[in-house]
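Re: the request from the purification team.
They wanted to know what the chain is likely to look like in 3D before they choose a buffer screen. I agreed to run a prediction and write the result into the notebook, where they can find it.
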Amino acid sequence: MSLYIRREASKYFHGLAARGVHYFHRPGPLLQDVGFFLLPELGQNKAYISETVFTFVFLSFFLWSFHPFILKSKKIYTVLLWCRVLAFLSACQILRIVTFYSTQLPGPNYHCREGSKSATLPPPDNILKALIILPRGILYGCGDLIFSSHMIFSLVFVRTYQKYGMQRFIKQCAWLIVVIQSFLIVAARKHYTVDIVVAWYTVNLVVSFIDHKLPELPDRSGGAALLLPLSKDGRTKEENFKLLNGNSGDPIDRRQRTPANGKILENGNTVHGDAMMNGELGR
């Protein structure tokens, strides 16, 4: 439940910041961009392609993160994994908010250009209107450009699977898909090329730094023995079962109960067998 609350709170505050910068956005002529010269424009009718690729990446990672509940290969803990992912996303989103509030660029997307009614927002009449975030406001926002939020999520997901995933072929395909998504975002004129470039090195640096500071995830595949319940005296049930059957795993117990000359030595009255043999032979 706390994980869900953190995720929703992070999404809300980022959406609130993105809506706030839309009030400051002023449409203008498109900036010179090398990506716009090199990549053909997809157009409004094909702008959904980049969103489709992003949705595929998001759903694929989400479903994979819950595979320990279905498959027997339980290498990761889903909750701990998502706590780690949320730490990456939160840090990147905070940097993104600081960046796009520092400088507002004229949006290259179709609904942010000059002549579009949604390019600017009228000031809110009351504070309640400013705090309510509608889905349309998220999809048709302007001004929150540097750097791409889509690339933040995609890079965090792919880097996480790169570290904790098992299939090498899927890892290679995932990186290829993210590269293709980068070109599609620019071709759809949703971001400038600088938004994509900054996202690539910023997200990777942030994830590397935080991943180094956070404790490593425990390996669930080898942690079954650690989950055995303990009894009051600190022994596991397995050890108590061995004791009841006379099969103690303690080497000290075995040494104290070693038979010598047909007698069981115990309670501190132990005499080394070799010493007794030597004493009898010397008589």
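For the purification team: Residues 162 and 193 are 25 Å apart (CA to CA).
Please add any questions underneath this entry.
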